[in-house]
Amino acid sequence: MLLYNNNEYDLMMILGFIVAGFLALFSAGAVAHPHSFIDMNTTFVAKDQKLVGLKMVWVMDEITSADLLYDAQNAKSDSEVWKKLAAEVMANVLGQHYFTDVYRDGKPVKYLNLPTEYHLSRQGHQAVLEFVLPLAEPQPLAGKPFEISTYDPSYFVDMTYKDKTALHLPPEMAPQCKFSLMTPKPDSSLQAYALSLDKNDAPSEDMALGQQFAQRVTLQCQ
């Protein structure tokens, strides 16, 4: 990730927790990284033979979602309550540069500081954040592959795609593009280290712990 803040409380706020209640988020038995889990779903967004963004859907685990859903109560999905919560969550995600790295030919692809759209909703007992990450400059589809990773640098939050079915090519990209999903297999010592961390522990920045557990999506178009 290009820029980030490793402060543990900031990372929890990225998930939109309310300051007064977020300490109750985790169960007493939670002692190892990661403490929170997000299932991701991403659709590539293209226009005029150029990649213009990524449409992301993040489904938070039930414990992570608890405070958000409590604050929302029974408010309607289009109410000001949900809009306010969505803005708070999105603001903190933006503060961490969407938790996302996009590289092409070894160089970072820049993106805009504001999403073109975003939305927060309820899915049973889980909170769902949806947003479009817009690239600063549309990128020609043909050429060098795109390398995309989404992760929490501290590995406090586990952000993963269940499998390749969580990634989608729109019809206009399907004939000329293909993608792959690589899930790393950290060695046993690194896994043991992550398991040893308490929720109040922060791994060394030099370790790039979250990056070592991060999945990598490769998008190649002809």
UniProtKB/TrEMBL annotation:
It comes from the Bacteria. InterPro entries: DUF1007, UCP008159_ABC. This is DUF1007 family protein. It comes from Serratia inhibens. The lineage of its organism: Bacteria, Pseudomonadati, Pseudomonadota, Gammaproteobacteria, Enterobacterales.
